[in-house]
Design a protein that fits this description.
173 residues; mainly alpha; two-stranded antiparallel ribbon; 9 helices; elongated; binds zinc ion
């Protein structure tokens, strides 16, 4: 009786059925292929959503990525559920809608289901700008307000979103 799984690279021991460990035997039973997960991944490699997942990981974990400094370099993390599982990411976010990109609603928060949505680049830019409000910007916004523009009009002209306006006019008096 063989004690090792016949799948190359597998070091699982213990109960062996048809030459396979429990994990690989289960996959073979269920999908007809002991390496199902791997094959499934290859099937997704050329999809947009898989590319999104890869790029997210690259930005956060690869110091050689051109945008690493804005992500991993800022300690932006990926939740455990997504970090090592494309399937989980895919289940949570679904297909990538055309023209939209993955956005973290809290720009300082991590990549996770609760903090992510699909957004247009314009929405993303608005969200990002809301977090880098400088004293000069506040001065400029208050001046526009003084000239009679409504917060909505100022928002449209400056690109800062409505939450930012609320912060300036209703919370920081
Ligand atoms: Zn095995």
């Amino acid at each position: 009786m063989k004690l090792h799984c016949k799948i190359q690279g597998c070091t699982n021991k213990g109960y062996i059925t048809r030459g396979m460990c429990y994990k690989h035997y289960r996959r073979w039973l269920k999908y007809g292929d002991p390496l199902f997960t791997k094959n499934e991944m290859h099937g997704m490699v050329n999809t947009k959503i898989y590319y999104v997942w890869c790029q997210m990981k690259q930005r956060c974990t690869n110091p050689n990525h051109p945008h690493y400094k804005d992500y991993g370099g800022r300690n932006i993390k990926i939740c455990d559920r997504w970090l090592n599982s494309f399937e989980n990411f895919y289940v949570d976010m679904g297909e990538k809608p055309k023209g939209l990109t993955l956005e973290r609603m809290d720009n300082d928060g991590e990549y996770c289901k609760e903090n992510c949505r699909w957004a247009t680049r314009y929405e993303q830019a608005q969200n990002r700008r809301s977090t880098i409000l400088s004293p000069e910007s506040i001065k400029r916004i208050k001046k526009m307000y003084g000239l009679g523009l409504t917060p909505m009009e100022i928002s449209e002209r400056t690109g800062f979103n409505k939450t930012t306006m609320d912060n300036i006019f209703y919370r920081r008096k």
